[in-house]
Write a structure and sequence with these properties.
7-stranded mixed beta sheet; 17 helices; 4-stranded antiparallel beta sheet; binds adenosine-5'-triphosphate; Rossmann fold; binds magnesium ion; ATP-binding; ATP binding; 502 residues; single chain; alpha/beta; transmembrane helix
Amino acid sequence: MNNTMLSSIAKNHSTKGILSTTGSAIAMAIMIRTISNELSPFGFNFKAFVVKNLRKLFNHFSSQITMVFEEYSDLTTNNIYVAAETYLGSKSLASTKRFKVCQDKNNKSYVFSMGKLEELVDVFEGIRFNWRYKSKETRFQITPTASDFDSNIKRRSELRCYELSFHKKHREMVLDSYLPHIKKAAKALEEENRVAKLHTMSSDGPTYYRSAWSSVNLNHPATFDKIAMDDRLKKMIMEDLERFVRRREYYKKVGKAWKRGYLLYGPPGTGKSSLIAAMANYLNFDIYDLELTDIQNNSRLRRLLLSTANRSILVVEDIDCSLDFQKTRPVTQEGKHGAPKHNDNHNPVCIFVTIALIFIFIPCIYLSSSFDKVTNFLWRWQQLTLSGMLNFVDGLWSSCGDERIIVFTTNNKDRLDPALLRPGRMDIHIHMSYCDPCGFRVLANNYLEVSNHPVFEVIERLLEITNVTPAEVAEALMRNDDPDTALGGLVTLLEEKHSGTA
Ligand SMILES: Nc1ncnc2c1ncn2[C@@H]1O[C@H](COP(=O)(O)OP(=O)(O)OP(=O)(O)O)[C@@H](O)[C@H]1O
Ligand SMILES: [Mg+2]
């Protein structure tokens, strides 16, 4: 055989080889696919199995390791995820080709964050760190818990995470220096752009992957210098707040949770809510407005409180109206809240209601199809108890989080359970009283820009003998742009109030 023949046979042979190898590979792929299809109905995902093991094999030989920062850990937001988001956001404009843009909380500048599957390289102390942002839309089922009354609702949600890859020899350095560096930088950036927020409870109730709270910017203009109240009291509150925020180490040293409780009490329109807004603006803290009447049980309360952020003020307005806490309190010799003691059980109305309940209402519900729902609801409704509430304010749960302020407001301090009022729960009780001369001067300055006027003397004398709220004074001062007319109107109001005609 000559050379040309030999090479043509060799070529033929190799073509055949390629064809047969390709054929075998296709046959193998078809077989794997068939097996995987056969097995998948039994819950075995062959593709995932192969990918997982290939990854394991690859990881075994790779010098890189990957840390995953998921958005949620257990029931709460993962702080390091939030820090990474802020930190990487500040780098994404310069370092990525695709990023998300939104307006910042002050509506002053833009905030950037990484786009889906986008990668970013960050260099810290000469070492390269690879970041990748991932998000996956998922359908999951809420398990029927006490806090989610509408159980078995399917919802869409998103699972988000950042992946950080680096050489394994830097493992220690990442934990000791790089992550602390990210947290510090993120904190500085947050402080720069920070605007206090007002959070209200989400109407649908919390789920694992959706916030229990929805928020808006707290654009309340109240500040301490605009609040009409005794100057010494105002100063005391401001100093107390300042002392509280700088006492991180002190609280640790004495073994107390870093939190402080304020009770604001006084008649309607004396500035309790305004003072809360002034406190939030002063400290630049968020406000969480907790509506106790919308919470069915302790477990929902726990979830809500766990998803509040540090450096925040938790507010429960009108605590005496929110729940009938007094039910759990033993009746004293004088009866409830100092009222004369009488036996309710002997009241004819009470006897009639009890009989109606036993013989008509309960059998009716029992026979109806909604019996389970009603009993379930009543059972859950009863679960928000005073002891549950106290436990969050000053029990083990209260230690979840730092730099927390809790404010309760009430128009009737006497109606509150003493257990709620003791130091450690409500550390400072602030009486917001009727307008006094000192408060009036603040309001006159605010509303009319007047710091002195011949009629001040009359007004101040009348204020000392008349109960009028700062809200009423403010309203009178706003009625006219002309200070003389407005102040004259206030004198008339005070005189009418004093004589009992207003
Ligand atoms: N001490 C105050 N200083 C300045 N403004 C006040 C003060 N008290 C009331 N006001 C004015 O009156 C209005 C009502 O005040 P605010 O809502 O703070 O009273 P409140 O004590 O919370 O009343 P309520 O008990 O009904 O909730 C506010 O818009 C505020 O402008
Ligand atoms: Mg109020």
